[in-house]
Amino acid sequence: MIKYILNGFLNFVLPDSCVSCQNIVQDSGNYLCAKCYKELEPYNENHPWQSEQVSNGTIDISFSAFWFREGKPIQPLLHAMKYSKMKGVGVMLGGELGKKLAPQFKNEFDLILPVPLHKGKQRERTYNQSEFIARGVSEIFNVPVLNDCLTRTRFTGTQTKLNKAERKENVSGAFTVNQKSASAIRGKNIILVDDVITTGATILECARILKQAGSGKICIASAAYAELKINVV
Ligand SMILES: [Zn+2]
User: How far apart are the CA of 24 and the centre of ligand 1, in A?
Assistant: First the structure.
């Protein structure tokens, strides 16, 4: 009985089957088998709106680790992180993101901030997946994660059916910088982290208010980049 419970616990903590194809995973920390892991497609381009946002001063750098592709292993991987309490997936994806950013930017950033969920949403899900991605980035950069700096004051709902302009309007004024954290971010170079970036509306709004509050450079980064019109998990 004890062995049964212990096995169940270990399987929960360290899943031994691939979240995409259910085959055995050799290295449990990866959550994907070697075959599915190879199918993750690195995102090596600039976000389509990056130069516009750099030139208008909202951000300084933007990055994503992987392409979001429907029906590919990235989809069940993000789904497991978001809905199956597999927080370790977030740390793993954050590690991948951090490794990609570090060669160029290792000593340039002071803080990592996750994009917050609305309080009600976080209560329902019990955790913010982006905090775990932030932790993965932080392990590579060796700088702290600040979880309670930003607050999502307005519930913005799902944005999957909205176009670029509607998304921008939808998130406008939806975040605030907490008074207590204002001094902690002043002049600091920040990596702002989310799970998926599409039009960038949400994360750019966060970047905008951080700059307004006096932050230094802002890098916006995500585990995955999805083209608009794709129904993300
Ligand atoms: Zn697999």
Answer: 8
pLDDT along the chain (233 residues), means of 10: 50 72 81 94 94 96 96 95 91 96 95 91 88 97 95 74 75 86 94 95 95 96 88 61
CA dist., res. 62 & res. 43, Å (int): 11
User: Are 136 and 94 within 8 A, CB to CB?
Assistant: yes
With 0.90 as the threshold, say if the pTM is over it: no
- In the chain the domains, ranked by start, together with CATH numbers, are 1-38 (no CATH), 41-225 (3.40.50.2020)
CA 80 to ligand 1 center in whole angstroms: 13
Q: What are phi and psi of 171, to 5 degrees?
A: -100, -5
CA of 37 to the centre of ligand 1 (A): 7
Ligand 1 centroid vs 64 CA: distance in angstroms? 22
Structural contact between residues 142 and 134, judged by C-beta atoms closer than 8 angstroms: no
Enumerate residues with CB within 5 Å of ligand 1 (an ion).
18, 20-21, 23, 33, 36
DSSP structure class, residue 30: G
- Ligand 1 centre distance from Cα of residue 36 (Å): 4
